[in-house]
Write a structure and sequence with these properties.
The chain is an alpha+beta fold. It is built from four helices and eight strands. It has one domain: Jelly Rolls. This is Regulator.
């Protein structure tokens, strides 16, 4: 399930803010199966996917981790870096070979403090992603564990 267009970075941020963010990016790659982060760990970075896919998962006591959503091109991986206490709320694993832009959360938070307009746009974008992921998590967990599912599949 891909995020709505408004949560992909090119559609969510004005060009000048997108360019400012990309200037501090570092290109990284991960093999299929690599864990980017685990639920509860310290959120000190985030990624924008260039190629490949990432599965977001949630620990479920007594069961295997439930895949909540799969992310692809131009989507944000990780939002917990923006909100204290900066700990991951989900886990993330490369579902295929992955190339991404990686960002240092401390540097981005400082840019947000220095430029309030930039900060507002980043916060709005990340907030839209959080709202989308919360809805996706609810729907997926109902589909997996509720007696009649979420009802979203008709």
């Amino acid at each position: 399930m891909n995020a709505p267009a408004t949560t992909s970075m090119p559609r969510a941020l004005p060009a000048e803010h997108r360019e400012r963010l990309l200037r501090i990016a570092r290109e990284v790659s991960f093999p299929q199966g690599a864990r980017l982060f685990d639920e509860g760990g310290h959120a000190d970075r985030f990624w924008i996917i260039r190629t490949g896919t990432v599965d977001l998962d949630m620990r479920v006591p007594g069961r295997r981790a439930a895949v909540i959503e799969s992310l692809g091109h131009n989507e944000l991986v990780g939002w917990s870096w923006l909100y204290p206490p900066y700990s991951w709320h989900l886990g993330a694993e490369a579902a295929s070979p992955l190339r991404a832009f990686e960002f240092d959360a401390t540097v981005v938070r400082e840019l947000c403090r220095q430029d309030p307009e930039f900060g507002r746009n980043i916060a709005r974008w990340v907030g839209e992603v959080v709202a989308h992921r919360l809805h996706a998590a609810r729907t997926r967990l109902l589909d997996l564990y509720a007696p009649y599912g979420s009802g979203s599949r008709g």
